[in-house]
Amino acid sequence: MPPKVEKEHLNVVDIASSDDDGDAQTVARKKASSLGERQLRRNISSPEIPQSSGPITPPALPSDETLDSRSFWKAGNYVIGPTSKPALLEGALEHARVHPKFLHSNATSHKWAFGAIAELMDNAVDEIQHGATFIKVDKIDIKMDNSPGPALLFLDDGGGMDPVLLRKCMSLGYSSKKSNTTIGQYGNGFKTSTMRLGADVIVFSRSTRAGKATQSVGLLSYTFLRRTGQDDVIVPMIDFDISGHWAEPIIYSTHDDWSSNLKTILEWSPFSLKEDLLLQFDDIGPHGTKIIIYNLWLNDEGIYELAFDDDDEDIRLRDEALREATTKVLKKTVELQSHISYRLRYSLRAYASMLYLRKFNNFQIILRGKPVQQFNIADELQYPKVVTYKPQVAAGSKECSVETTIGFIKETPTNVSGFNVYHKNRLIRPFWKVKSDGSVIGNGVVGVLEADFIEPAHDKQDFERSSLFVRLENRLKQMVHEYWKGHCYLMGYQPPGFAAKQKKLLANQHNNSSNLPAGGKQDSRDEQPGLDVPDVVMPEGDLASISVDQLCEENIQLFMRCEEKAQKEADLKQTVRITLPRINFRLWL
């Protein structure tokens, strides 16, 4: 885009930020700026996003270019038209560009739409330290290109963003979150998540810092960038000083630049009038952030990827919900699909209920007008056991220990199993199955742990495949086997190795019975040689003094006695069936 020709000297407002304490403050100073210096300020290494300056003249595009693709996985397949690169002025430096296609390719890190929504929820949760008490997630109706359509709304009452922080939010790879407790850390979540859900997003934010109250609007529009043939990511933004009785525009270069940014926002957002645009601040309050994602993506069938009509209190993934509704399944499968381990795949309410490990004290997730009830599956386990694991962290790192709660899931199909692994209170891997498929060992066993010692992937749906992760996986496999060995009998399963021990005990019984005297009888308490089964049930408090192997051996003996009694009962019934007719015949004679 050719630079706008302006006067040689300009009065500008620089925006400075203090990264040490995380508080950004706006500092105005007057200076003389050449046109070359203004172009240098657009360098991508700066935390500020390039803003449009003046009317944008799109380059000529090929006649066969398709710009109307609304399917996310096809949205990056448009032809790049010829671009006109302006000659550098004397004293200006060349800078790297970020093509709009990068916004799309960057967003493909989110394979799952709910993962993108969770990123935006994380931003609001991180604002709890700044006083946030809620995040509202809802569907609103907007009108774009003379046709109505749904849009996603995210609204929180956190600290909000001043002009500096809004520009950093819309920059690539910048993060001002330095606390060990915050979830966000890569500075990429806002861009990837919003672009994964829809082609365009408009942000409204209010904030008060250093005694100055501001409100800002920013537009990140993939539709605008590709339809105007841009070869650089341009984000129009406008700011207001609201410390007084009315909103005063904050001018950084010229009023024409500010007006040009406003014109672009009004043309490419759902709000065509300045009055309508400013009305969007009414429900924010004195501080907070409002995000509207529109031109939502379609699936391969040409319908919206997100379903809003199936449940007025939920947002669903249409493809998963349709798969559930149209598949003819057995009763066990129906029971499985009703469990949260399955519902979280397509129900945002189910997913959000498990998204955070610890329940909030003064914060709510409000989905379509109804608060989400948080759910910790560790509270639903039978025969729970807490296992402590101390990972072997790198030398010099702080030692840590991880407590894993493991147990049998209540009243669900046995094929529900796996570990729910959290990182900094955020669910990363739900129902992670570490046991081998096809093995009965671990059926119905569910665990919960918080693994802050390993790093999550960028989409926060998995962990980086480090050596720490591999060791954790191996320890969880061992944990399942140990728990199964000592507790499976409580759910009616045979302990591991039961069949081999049963065969051995039967062989010993046969050998001992063949050595009995003719007509001799074995004492009733010695019906099973070599077994020493107590006559009384051991008090529950004494179980802690018994090893797992001893307990398992006693369980096997009890299983053997039950099977023997069942066999004797069957033999007795068979004897009765044979003997009774003979008795009746003799009586008849």
Automatic annotation (TrEMBL):
Residues 346-484 form the Morc S5 domain. It comes from the Eukaryota. It holds the Pfam family HATPase_c_3. Its cofactor is Mn(2+). GO terms for molecular function: ATP binding; ATP hydrolysis activity; endonuclease activity; RNA binding. Its main location: nucleus. The keyword Transit peptide does not apply. GO terms for biological process: chromatin organization; DNA repair; positive regulation of defense response; regulatory ncRNA-mediated gene silencing. It is found in: Nucleus. Residues 42-55 have a biased composition (Polar residues). GO terms for cellular component: nucleus. InterPro entries: HATPase_C_sf, MORC_ATPase, Morc_S5. Keywords: ATP-binding, Chromatin regulator, Coiled coil, DNA damage, DNA repair, Endonuclease, Hydrolase, Nuclease, Nucleotide-binding, Nucleus, RNA-binding, RNA-mediated gene silencing. Residues 13-67, 510-534 are annotated as: Disordered. Belongs to the MORC ATPase protein family. This is Morc S5 domain-containing protein. It comes from Gossypium raimondii (Peruvian cotton). The lineage of its organism: Eukaryota, Viridiplantae, Streptophyta, Embryophyta, Tracheophyta.
